[in-house]
Structures are given as C-alpha cells and as structure tokens.
Amino acid sequence: MQLATQFIALENVLVVRLEGELDHHSAAHLKMEWQEQMQKNNSKHVVLNLENLQFMDSSGLGVVLGRYKEVQQIGGEMVVCSISNAVKRLFDLSGLFKIVRLEENEAFALLTLGVAS
Amino acid sequence: MNNSMQLQFKSVSTNEGFARVAVAAFVSQIDPTMDEITEIKTVVSEAVTNAIIHGYEEDPNQTVYIECEINDNQLSIVIEDHGVGIDNIDLAKEPLYTSKPELERSGMGFTIMENFMNKVDIHSIKGKGTTVRMVKDFQKSKSYCN
C-alpha cells in the first residue's frame, strides 16, 4: 500500500492528513509535497492528522522531525492528532513528544491554534 | 512448530513494503497478536531500509537477503546485505545517531529493533557487508475463554 496525502490550509495552519504507509519509500515524495504546500499557503503551524496511517517506521519520524525544524524556524508549532498506539510508541521512543504536541483529534488541535473548523 | 523461509530481492525502496508484508505473512502461522505483527513489520522495515540506504548507498542493482526461522514459539530473522559495512556498530546503535543527517534520517532504526525484539545482533565487516540477526519470543498459548 502506498501513501496518500491530503493538505488543507486553514488560516495560517496547514492540516496534513496521511493515509497508508509512511516508510523510506514514501518519505522523499511526502517531504517535497509538504514543503511545497507550506510555501504555497504561507502556513505557520501544522496539524498532522495520522488517523488513517496504517504503518510508520523511523523514516517517517525523520520526515516529521525535518518539518518540525522548519516550522520552528518560522516561529510556528506542530501538533499531531489521532495517532495509533503503534505510532505513539515510535514517538515516545524517539522523544518526539517533547517537541511536538499531541491532541486527541483534528478539530481540537485546530482550536488550540486559534482556528475554528 | 519448525519452519523456515528465505527471500532475496533487489535493493530498491519499493521492496521495503514487500519485505515487511512477506515476513508478516510467514509469521502469521504462529498466531501473533496485532501488536506483535506491527513490531515485526517495523523491524523488518528498519533493517531492510538500512541495507538499502547505508549498506548499498541506494545502488538499486544489489540484493538484500532475508532468512526467517520459526522454532516452537521463537522467531529469528536474519537480514543481510553485501554492502559497505558499518564503521562503528556501537555508534550506529546509539539513539538519534545517523551517519547520513543530510538525508533526514531520524537515527532511531537500531533503537526500534532493540525495543521491539528480544535480541538483536549486528555483524559487519567493512567492504563485505552487514548481517542483522533478531530473535523474538511469542507468547506460548493464547486463551480466549476463561
């Protein structure tokens, strides 16, 4: 299974929805698309919705970490939501929750960034 | 139960998905839990990705080898490449360390393997290749009615 992506710009927030499998194979393309969308929409913050992500490994962590660094540079915040226990374990292991905020769902994550959906 | 299988495939990234699904299908005969399947898929993905990116430096014309063996409720997986080898294994195993920071790697591969498996051994010879051998014990009997 491949990775399908959906990007939605709401005010200064880019919502990134991932569906399928995020590994080394899909990581490079995701990085490119994600960067393009951030620029095109002039986004400052990111809400990463992983509700429909079936698989992720350390290559996925690398992409998230890379985008976090870019968001941080422009004074933005990254919020992740709707993650499975398996993905949560990877985030825990890598210490990603120290820098990326976790919220239960997309609507609530948006609300914390000042966007009513 | 005793069983074994061997796989070999080209060192291209599309085969990362193939490898983890193939190994997961082989393991399904010992009736693993969903969590155990996810762990197996993840460690296979990590080791195969390492072979492709680091071992073969993304040369698509090389071969990655996988051997799996089930002995009763123990699974062993051996993932091998004939690539460049690892300079310093202790350093490579450190969480967040990566020899290729320019590629946006998280440096978590070996940490994940060590967390998800009971045993991980790495053998590497410079210029000859790397072999990662992992062992996992599965729960003996799963009772669904008490």
TrEMBL record, chain A:
Keywords: Phosphoprotein, Sporulation. Belongs to the anti-sigma-factor antagonist family. The gene is spoIIAA. It comes from the Bacteria. The keyword Transmembrane does not apply. This is Anti-sigma F factor antagonist. The keyword Phosphoprotein applies. Residues 3-117 form the STAS domain. In the phosphorylated form it could act as an anti-anti-sigma factor that counteracts SpoIIAB and thus releases sigma f from inhibition. Pfam families: STAS (PF01740).
UniProtKB/TrEMBL annotation, chain B:
It comes from the Bacteria. The keyword Repeat does not apply. It catalyses: L-threonyl-[protein] + ATP = O-phospho-L-threonyl-[protein] + ADP + H(+); L-seryl-[protein] + ATP = O-phospho-L-seryl-[protein] + ADP + H(+). Its EC number is 2.7.11.1. GO terms for molecular function: protein serine/threonine kinase activity. Residues 35-140 form the Histidine kinase/HSP90-like ATPase domain. It is an enzyme of class 2 (transferase). SUPFAM superfamilies: ATPase domain of HSP90 chaperone/DNA topoisomerase II/histidine kinase. Keywords: ATP-binding, Kinase, Nucleotide-binding, Serine/threonine-protein kinase, Sporulation, Transferase. The keyword Nucleotide-binding applies. Belongs to the anti-sigma-factor family. PANTHER family: ANTI-SIGMA-F FACTOR RSBW, ANTI-SIGMA-F FACTOR RSBW-RELATED. Binds to sigma F and blocks its ability to form an RNA polymerase holoenzyme (E-sigma F). Phosphorylates SpoIIAA on a serine residue. This phosphorylation may enable SpoIIAA to act as an anti-anti-sigma factor that counteracts SpoIIAB and thus releases sigma F from inhibition. This is Anti-sigma F factor. It comes from Gracilibacillus marinus. The lineage of its organism: Bacteria, Bacillati, Bacillota, Bacilli, Bacillales. The gene is spoIIAB.
